[in-house]
Structures are given as C-alpha cells and as structure tokens.
C-alpha cells in the first residue's frame, strides 16, 4: 500500500532511530559534574568553613579541624542534593511541555513527542503548530507558513505540493516545510525528510522552545538584600577582628572570631529558600494540571487582580447540545425531528470527521433525520475555514453540474450573506435574541447554488435556512470559584466570541459582578484607549470579540494598574498572552504557538483550576514570607552573640562549631518545614498583594525584631550572669545553647501559623518533616551537652537537671510568648 496511507512500521521506526537518533533541533547544554562542584565550592559559606579548618590545623587543634572538614562535606552534599533536586524538578516540568505531533504509524494516527520523529514519517500539521522537522508537503489545504525565523521574510509563505510548483529553484522551496517555522493557517500532510541537527534550523543550533529563565522580581529583591547583608557582614567582621586583636593580642584567634561572625551573618538560606519554594511550588502545581513555563509566574499569580477568561471551554464545559431550532418560521423545542433539508444543509456545513463539539452536536441531531452516507461521498471543491475573526465557515460541493454552498456561522455573519425583506429579518433577529437570552450559543445556517466557483464567500448568493440554539453549561464549581475570587479581591472578566445576550445570560448564571451589561467587539473598535480604560472598570463581559480586541482589553486593564491573567488558545492569542502579566494557554485545545507565548499552561482547560492555582500562588508566597521571617529572627541571636562577646570582652559564647550546628538545623527548617505548611484561612479573604509591597511589611519587621531580641536576651543574659557568678564558661555555654535550640523549636511552632494556636499546630501532624527535624534537634542538644566525647568537641559540660529544666523553660518562653500576641489578634477578629 501507499506509504502516505500507512506510515512507517514499528521496525522501520526502530531502524531509522538507530540510524539518525532523536529529532532534537539543538544540543542541550550539559553542565558537567566538575563545573557544578566548583560552583558549590564558590559558596561563601564553604569558603569560610575551609578557612576555619585551615586555622584550626594551624593552631594544632586537629580534632576541631577534622570536625570542620566533616561539616564541609556535609554542607557540600546538602547543597548538591538541593541543586540536583531543583534541576530535576525543572527538567520534569520542561518535559511536560515538550511539543507533540500527530503521525501515521502502522496505519494508525497517533500523537508522539516531536523528538521521536524519524525521517519518512508521515505527519499531520495544522494551524498554530511549529513544524517539527524539515518535511515535504504531500497533501495541502490553504497552508501558509511564517518562515521569518529562518528567512527573515515577514510575509507568510504559501505552500503547495511539489508537482504543482512551477519549477523555480529557490533555496527555500515552496513544497518544503522547515523545522522551527510556524503554521499561520491551513492544514497539511507531510513526509519528514530531515530531522534534528541536519535540518536548516538545526544548523543554526539555537533553542526556540525554551523560555529564558530570568530571576523573578522576588529573587532580584532578595539578591539585593543578600548583597547589602554581605557588605555589612564584611565591615562588622573587620571591626570584630581589630577589636579582638586589641583585646587579646592574638591574631589567629581574632581572625577566628571574625570568621565566626561572618558565618553567622552570611544569608545563604535566602536564595535557597526562594529556589526551593518556587520550583517545588511549580512541581506541586503540575500535579494539579497547571504547568509553569516561567517560574516567576508562581510569584505573580498571588498578586493577580483580574482574571480574563474565555467563556467556551474554560468557564463552560464545551460539551454542546442542540436544545432549540428555528426553521421555516417555526420554533422546535423537540429537536429529534427536523426536516431532511435542514439536516442535509447542517451536515454539509460542517467539517468532515469534525472534532469540534459544536459541529458534533449539530451532526448528531441531523443524523437522526437523514442517511449520512449519501452525503459523505460528495466532493468538496473549496473550503472556507472557520476563524474567530469572520465567525463563519462554508463548504463548496459539486452537485448536479453546479456548485452547491453550505455555510454556517454567527447569525450576524450569515445574515450578511443572505437577502431578506425587512419582516423576515426582524423575525430572525427576534428569535436569535430569544435563544441567546436563554444562554444558548446561536448558529445560523444558509445555502445556495452557483454556476461559478468564487474565491470569496461574499460573492455567492445564499438563502437563509435556520438557526440552532446550543446549550453549553457552565463547568461544575465555577460559581463557587467566582465567589471565592470575589472575596479574594479578584475580578473575573469573561471574554467571548459569542453573541452579547448569550454571554450576559451565562454571566448572570455564574455570578459575575457586572453581569447585566456587555461591551461588544464593535463597540471596542469605536472607543479610544482612554474611553476603553474607563469602560473596563465597570464591565465584566466582552462579547463578539476577536483576538485583536483582547490585546486592547489587556492594555486598558494594565493601564488601570491591574495585574492581569489572561487565557488564550489560538495563534492570534499569542500577542495578548505575551502582553498579560500571566498568559495562560489551554493545554487541551491550545495551539503550540499559544503555549510558547504563555507563562502557564492549563492542562484541563478548567476555570476552577486557575482559581486554585492563584490560591496556591498566594500560599507559596505566604510560606516564603514565613520562612524569611524565621531566617531573620533566628539570625538575630546568632549574630549578636557572635558580635557581643568580642565587644564586651566576654569569652566567646558561640564557636564556629556551634554556628555550623545551628545552621544545619536552620537550613532544613526553613527550606523544608515552611515549604509544606498548609494554607492559612485568610489566604483568599484578603485583597491581592501589591507587587510593590516590600518583602517584609512594617508589622513583620517589628515581629522579627521583637522575637529575635527576646531569644537573644534569653541566651545572652544567663550566660553573662553565670560567668559572673563563677561557673565555667563551658557550663554557661551549655545553658545558652539549650535556650537557643529549644527557643528555635518553639519559634518554628509559633510561626508555622499566624492564626492557629501552637496547640493546634502541634496536634496537626501533616507536616512530618517538622516533627522529625524538631526531634532530631532535641536529640542533638542532649548529645552535645551530656556525651563526654562531644563535650570536649563542642566545649560544653553536663548541666544539672534543675539548670537544664530552667534552660528549657526559659528557651520556651523566649519565643513562645508570641502566642499571647496571636491570641490577642484572634480575639480582636471575633
Ligand atoms: P468563543 O470560543 O469565545 O465562544 P468563537 O470565536 O469560537 O468564540 O465563536 C464565535 C461565534 O462563532 C459563535 O457564537 C458561533 O456563532 C460561531 N461559531 C463558532 N464555532 C463555529 C463553527 N464551527 N462553525 C460556524 N460558526 C461557528
Ligand atoms: Mg471557540
């Protein structure tokens, strides 16, 4: 049988794959292990650790030196692990969005990853797709391809089969499709000729699919903060070294206390927390059918103020059902019995083997009244494809030596093609309005004959046949999702190509705020930018719009200062998706181009999933804040302790060992525990966060200072007191370490939730890692205070049980007192 009818067989595919490899247009950059290792070693924390190790060895304190080396290895492996995990998560996400293509193999049409294509594969390409390999056109209908990416030519190139080409031998062939170029309109069947780096595009060797990953605004803010802290740290360090040298005259010891301070100050947790929270957030969203193409979108999501969504398929199910028909001046509520004539026109006005839900619904009804097989053999000699600008389509057939045209589309579009008297027109318009006021999608039908084949649909004279009213119910949960948007201060704007009455009826059903009016595409055309800016303030429904209008709507909303998320699926939606703060492409019906332009892909095309992801975005941001606040608080005592000892000429409370130990507790605490914290009840009850809002608000800064200071006092004052009263430094230090570590555990519990009391947090055992890390820190604390071997290393000594209990209580109170503030807030809210 002919190759184009069966495609390649399994064996052939295997054979070609072995011979030519994968269809990858560019070589992925592979960062070697060595480079990653050097990157990790460049971390300032590790450099400091290495310095300390060297100093200990110079001082002849080998035991300490070796422990420090172990710490170095530990920190290295943690960093490695974290990076590996983030990389893996990101790669998994990228794989989920890798482009796919329909191929013919073993006589079956299947969908495979474009990278699996081999030469001689037969592929099906349609509007909105990127060509996956260099191919030759076999069958073609109206195919225009944007080849600017290769040729620089901005006009789309028209494609035809080889035998129709006029033999001009250009470098860029009319019968060839080139990898990386974009199908603007039409469909075709093609045979793959060259794949991977042998394609014209592959020779250039750049990636088109990859969205360039820039730092998110938050990452930039935090980056700056880290720089500022580093400078402060360096200045303080030098000050401490000089001070201590004046006090002790011992240079190496002074350097050591300087390094201790530096280790305490380096805010290495901040970037880690951001990278981990954002990538894990994206990963969790992927499990809920939302794929983040840009990590920064995770962050922006939470501050979205307006959601602009398509109606059909996003708010509604996109499962159409014919519910009313108007034909021959009569209204039919029972659509099972329609005339043969209308049924025939309906079927002929649809695509063959249609997958469009609207056409499937119409055909289903028509089939009940007419034998379809008679119509299936008719030859289509011209197609006018549907697009959202013209809102109509038609097929031209050869019938009885004449041409027969069957058309359908929006009533306005079809009426324009027909001739009426005033009375007829009035009646039709009344019916259309009646259908639409019931929330039905309205389609008009017309047909006609012609002796000539015209290029434009307008040149045919058609006669009006009838109208269909199709029901497309809102998806389950949309009403609730919109309510939750309202309490969260997010406006939902519905954008649709449908008739305004249909849109308004649906808008009312789902509870849009301004659901009694709609602005139509035509009205937008007559508005200036400023008028539109005012209009969008009080309108939630835009009807009969074409993709170009979306662009203006977004611009107007953004000029009003809104943060806009917008959905889209078609080729023409790409500019609007790019312009929106968050472009959301549909995973199901979206074109490749829309997906490339989007920040986020919605796999299930469902509106409620968007609202869920906004909630997740807010939760992620809230947790990032919690983690940041925690990091700030816990560093206050550590830094001040490292700073005060030399300043007040006290013996050093915290040695590099202790700081390392604390960091090993702090690190997983902030990057794991807070990441999985469940959402707070207020998350969707407050207005969106302004992107201009600082990382920490004034209230948060106060909280940081208060909690940090009390924890510091609880560790510092007893130490001061104990040393003055004559006990050994080791004993006093054990006391301080106990208050610090216990204070830290309580701090995590207190700050895990801003609303729930600590008792509820303790009983909620969903966050397993919190329980684990807290238990480990208690065990570690007991070990370093009571195990002789560790005592000599950590310069501690056994505390009497009474003293130990005192330290426990003091530590608990030092951070636990914040519960009173929380209680006060709760009472005030009642
Ligand atoms: P949306 O998807 O936003 O509802 P569309 O651009 O898909 O908007 O559709 C706009 C209008 O075009 C519909 O109200 C309907 O009248 C008409 N229409 C939609 N699909 C078809 C089709 N397959 N054939 C003919 N007309 C259609
Ligand atoms: Mg549509």
From TrEMBL:
Domain of life from the UniProt record: Bacteria
Name of the protein described by the UniProt record: Calcium-transporting ATPase 1
Start and end residues of each Cation-transporting P-type ATPase N-terminal domain: 7-55
UniProt xrefs under InterPro entries: ATPase_P-typ_cation-transptr_C, ATPase_P-typ_cation-transptr_N, ATPase_P-typ_cyto_dom_N, ATPase_P-typ_P_site, ATPase_P-typ_TM_dom_sf, ATPase_P-typ_transduc_dom_A_sf, ATPase_P-type_domA, HAD-like_sf
SUPFAM superfamilies: Calcium ATPase, transduction domain A, Calcium ATPase, transmembrane domain M, HAD-like, Metal cation-transporting ATPase, ATP-binding domain N
Span of domain P-type ATPase A: 96-207
N-terminal signal peptide: none
Residues of the Cation-transporting P-type ATPase C-terminal domain: 651-824
Keyword field: ATP-binding, Membrane, Nucleotide-binding, Translocase, Transmembrane, Transmembrane helix
Membrane spanning residue stretches: 40-59, 65-84, 228-246, 258-283, 627-649, 734-750, 771-789, 801-821
Bilayer disposition of the protein: Multi-pass membrane protein
GO cellular component: membrane
Family: Belongs to the cation transport ATPase (P-type) (TC 3.A.3) family. Type IIA subfamily.
Location in or out of the cell: Membrane
GO molecular function terms noted in the UniProt entry: ATP binding; ATP hydrolysis activity
PROSITE patterns per the UniProt record, alphabetical: ATPASE_E1_E2
Primary localisation category: membrane
Cited Pfam families: Cation_ATPase_C (PF00689), Cation_ATPase_N (PF00690), E1-E2_ATPase (PF00122), Hydrolase (PF00702)
């Amino acid at each position: 049988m002919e190759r184009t009818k069966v495609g390649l067989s399994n064996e052939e595919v295997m054979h070609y794959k072995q011979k030519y490899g994968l269809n990858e247009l560019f070589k992925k950059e592979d960062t070697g292990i060595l480079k990653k290792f050097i990157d990790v070693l460049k971390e300032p924390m590790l450099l400091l650790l290495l310095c300390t190790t060297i100093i200990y060895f110079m001082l002849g304190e080998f035991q300490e030196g070796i422990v420090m080396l172990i710490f170095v290895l530990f920190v290295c492996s943690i960093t490695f692990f974290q990076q590996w995990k983030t990389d893996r998560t990101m790669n998994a996400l990228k794989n989920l969005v890798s482009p796919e293509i329909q191929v013919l193999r073993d006589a079956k049409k299947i969908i495979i990853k474009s990278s699996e294509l081999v030469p001689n594969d037969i592929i099906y390409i349609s509007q909105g797709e990127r060509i996956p390999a260099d191919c030759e056109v076999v069958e073609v209908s109206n195919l225009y391809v944007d080849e600017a990416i290769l040729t620089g030519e901005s006009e789309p190139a028209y494609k035809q089969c080889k035998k129709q080409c006029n033999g001009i031998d250009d470098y860029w062939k009319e019968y060839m499709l080139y990898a990386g170029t974009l199908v603007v309109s039409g469909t075709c069947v093609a045979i793959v000729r060259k794949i991977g780096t042998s394609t014209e595009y592959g020779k250039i060797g750049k990636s088109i699919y990859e969205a360039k990953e820039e730092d998110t605004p938050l990452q930039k803010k935090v980056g700056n903060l880290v720089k500022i802290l580093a400078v402060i740290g360096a200045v303080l360090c030098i000050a401490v070294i000089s001070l201590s040298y004046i006090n002790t005259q011992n240079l190496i010891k002074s350097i050591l206390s300087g390094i201790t301070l530096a280790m305490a100050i380096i805010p290495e947790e901040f970037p880690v927390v951001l990278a981990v929270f954002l990538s894990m957030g994206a990963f969790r969203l992927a499990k809920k059918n939302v794929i983040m193409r840009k990590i920064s979108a995770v962050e922006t999501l939470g501050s979205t103020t307006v959601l602009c969504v398509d109606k059909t398929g996003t708010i509604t199910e996109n499962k159409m059902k014919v519910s009313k028909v108007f034909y021959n001046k009569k209204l039919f509520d029972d659509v099972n019995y329609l005339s043969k004539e209308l049924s025939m026109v309906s079927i002929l006005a649809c695509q063959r083997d249609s997958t469009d839900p609207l056409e499937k619904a119409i055909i289903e009804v028509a089939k009940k009244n007419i034998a379809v097989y008679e119509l299936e053999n008719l030859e289509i000699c011209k197609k006018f494809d549907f697009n959202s600008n013209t809102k109509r389509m038609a097929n031209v057939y050869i019938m009885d030596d004449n041409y027969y045209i069957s058309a359908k589309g929006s009533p306005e579009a079809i009426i324009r093609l027909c001739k009426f008297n005033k009375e007829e027109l009035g009646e039709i318009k009344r019916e259309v309005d009646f259908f639409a006021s019931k929330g039905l999608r309205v389609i008009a039908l017309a047909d006609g004959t012609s002796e000539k084949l015209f290029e434009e649909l307008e040149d045919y004279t058609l006669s009006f046949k009838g109208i269909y009213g199709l029901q497309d119910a809102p998806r389950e949960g949309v009403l609730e999702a919109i309510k939750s948007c309202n309490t969260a201060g997010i406006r939902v704007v519905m954008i649709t190509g449908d008739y305004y009455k249909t849109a308004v009826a649906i808008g009312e059903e789902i509870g849009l705020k301004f659901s009694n009016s709609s602005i139509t595409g035509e009205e937008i055309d007559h508005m200036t930018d400023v008028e539109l800016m005012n209009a969008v303030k009080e309108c939630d429904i835009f009807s009969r719009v074409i993709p170009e209008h979306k662009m203006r709507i977004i611009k107007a909303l953004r000029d009003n200062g809104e943060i806009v998320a917008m959905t889209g699926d078609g080729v023409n939606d790409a500019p609007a998706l790019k312009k929106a703060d968050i472009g959301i492409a549909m995973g199901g019906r979206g074109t490749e181009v829309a997906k490339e332009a989007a920040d986020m892909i919605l796999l299930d095309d469902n509106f409620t999933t968007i609202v869920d992801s906004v909630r997740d975005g807010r939760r992620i941001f809230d947790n990032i804040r919690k983690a940041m606040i925690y990091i700030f608080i816990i560093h206050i005592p550590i830094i001040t302790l490292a700073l005060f000892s030399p300043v007040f000429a006290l013996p050093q409370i915290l040695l590099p060992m202790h700081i390392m130990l604390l960091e090993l507790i702090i690190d997983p605490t902030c990057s794991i525990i807070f990441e999985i914290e469940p959402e707070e009840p207020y998350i969707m009850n407050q207005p969106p966060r302004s992107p201009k809002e600082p990382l920490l608000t004034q209230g948060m800064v106060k909280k940081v200072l208060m909690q940090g200071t009390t924890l510091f006092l609880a560790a510092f004052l007893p130490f001061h007191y104990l040393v003055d009263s004559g006990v050994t430094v080791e004993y006093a230090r054990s006391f301080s370490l106990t208050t610090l570590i216990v204070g830290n555990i309580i701090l995590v519990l207190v700050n895990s939730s801003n609303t729930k009391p600590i008792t509820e947090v303790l009983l909620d055992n969903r966050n397993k890692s919190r329980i684990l890390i807290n238990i480990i820190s208690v065990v570690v604390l007991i070990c370093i205070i009571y195990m002789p071997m560790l005592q000599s290393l950590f310069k501690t000594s056994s505390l009497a049980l009474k003293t130990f209990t005192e330290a426990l209580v003091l530590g608990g109170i030092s951070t636990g007192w914040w519960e009173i503030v929380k209680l006060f807030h709760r009472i005030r809210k009642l």
